[in-house]
Write a structure and sequence with these properties.
alpha+beta; Glucose Permease (Domain IIA); 2 domains; 14 strands; about 60% helix; rod-shaped
């Protein structure tokens, strides 16, 4: 039965794949290779499987290449968007800082004008008071002179009557002339007094007009100062909110940071001294209180600026890269099970520049079995950053670095499966997620 099935199978193969002979001819002899049906079937099946494997492998390679290209393009677009937003925010921050500086200059000039106007107003008030006192004295003198004139007239009439009764009409003409001369002298004196009174009244009216103009000018200056104060307060509020949010998102108390900065302040700018226009130690005016509040906000922003440069809110890699592994538990790439990954990995080109993310002092710059070539920087407020798997180290232990200084190059040293940077942030000696600081600072720097 089996022989019959084998015979039929062989006959079927003979019909579809007849026996072939491949002749090889030389100068002296001719040989041939017999290709039986089974051999042809095996060769056909093998060739078909090889062709199918080639097609599948090519498709997988093309799909992986297309996927990698799309990821790179997406990363490039995100990087470009991030850089554009960073440039926009930096320009807006610089613009607001310039506006605040110009507003402060205008505010100082306005305060000087207000002080000058106040002095002019006080001088005008003193002059008006002197003029009113002079007018009252002149009026009193005029009233007294009129009374004296009336008394003199009455006395002259009485004397004239008495002389007429004693001496008769011979001397009456001389006495009348004397009385007329006396009256003319009194009238002239009264006229001069009236002119002086009119001059004093005109001077008092001029002083009142000057006082009114100075008061109106002072009111306009106060309105302009109020507008300047409002703009400054809005600028300080708008600039302060993202800084507060940045430190809170990083898990740090803004007030504790500011206290620490004030305690260790090294003279970079200095706190702004409050304004005090009073020399007698009295209660400050509302304008002085608003000015002091604005200066306090500017001082707080200055402290924030110092703290931000001392904390790792910047990016360690500025060239193109892709995120390959985040903070937390993961499957070990070397096959050592599930392990804690205490940092974040950024893969890029070999030799990509690595930068310090904050001001600090280098505490380690050398080889570590796990991290390969590694740099550790100690920052203020109990913060440390670690940069591992470098190809080259460009700093030394004890060296002080600033944010943005180049400290090494990206590499593949140590326990690594490819070129990348392993970046860690330690707070109080414990590792924390570096993305907390990077995300907190992306809308500010």
């Amino acid at each position: 039965m089996l022989n019959r099935l084998a015979y039929r199978f062989h006959q079927s193969l003979e019909r579809h794949f007849p026996e072939q002979r491949l002749f090889l001819k030389s100068d002296t002899e001719t040989r041939f290779i017999r290709l039986r049906p089974a051999t042809q079937v095996i060769a056909l099946v093998g060739g078909t499987l090889g062709l199918a494997w080639t097609i599948v492998a090519t498709a997988l390679i093309m799909m992986d290449s297309i996927g990698a290209g799309s990821a790179r393009e997406q990363s490039a677009r995100q990087q470009a968007m991030f850089e554009e937003r960073l440039n926009t925010l930096s320009a807006d921050r610089d613009l607001r800082a310039d506006d605040a500086l110009r507003a402060q200059e205008r505010f100082n000039a306005a305060l000087a004008q207000v002080s000058e106007m106040q002095e002019r107003l006080l001088a005008s008030e003193d002059r008006r008071g002197e003029l009113e006192t002079g007018v009252e004295a002149i009026q009193d003198t005029l009233r007294r002179t009129i009374k004296e004139r009336d008394v003199a007239r009455a006395e002259a009439n009485r004397v004239t009557l008495a002389l007429n009764e004693q001496s008769g009409g011979a001397t009456e003409m001389g006495r009348a002339k004397d009385a007329v001369a006396t009256l003319e002298f009194l009238i002239d004196a009264l006229g001069l007094t009236a002119e002086e009174r009119d001059e004093m009244l005109a001077a008092a009216e001029t002083a009142r007009e000057e006082t009114r103009l100075v008061t109106e000018e002072k009111r306009m200056v106060e309105q302009r100062n109020d507008l300047i104060f409002t703009k400054l307060e809005e600028a300080v509020t708008v600039s302060m909110e993202p800084l507060d949010n940045m430190f809170r998102q990083a898990g740090m108390s803004p007030e504790d940071l500011l206290d620490a900065v004030r305690e260790g302040y090294s003279g970079q700018g200095g706190p702004l001294t409050p304004i005090s226009m009073s020399t007698s130690g009295g209660v400050l005016a509302p304008e002085e209180l608003r000015a002091n509040a604005i200066l306090g906000g500017l001082d707080r922003m200055n402290m924030y600026r110092i703290a931000a440069f001392k904390l790792p809110f910047a990016m360690p890699v500025k060239d193109r890269f892709r995120w390959t592994s985040g903070f937390g538990y993961r499957r070990d790439p070397k096959g050592a099970g599930t392990r804690m990954h205490e940092g974040t990995d950024m893969a890029g080109a070999y030799g990509t520049a690595i930068f310090a993310t904050a001001d600090g002092v280098v505490t380690h710059a050398g080889w570590d079995n796990g991290y390969g070539r590694q740099v550790t920087i100690r920052h203020d407020f109990g913060v440390e950053t670690l940069y591992g798997h470098l190809s080259q180290i460009r700093v030394e232990v004890g060296q002080r670095v600033s944010r943005g200084d180049r400290i090494g190059d990206m590499g593949n040293s140590g326990r690594s499966t490819g070129t990348h940077l392993h970046y860690e942030v330690h707070l109080g000696g414990k590792p924390v997620n570096p993305m907390t600081f990077i995300k907190a600072g992306k809308n500010v720097f």
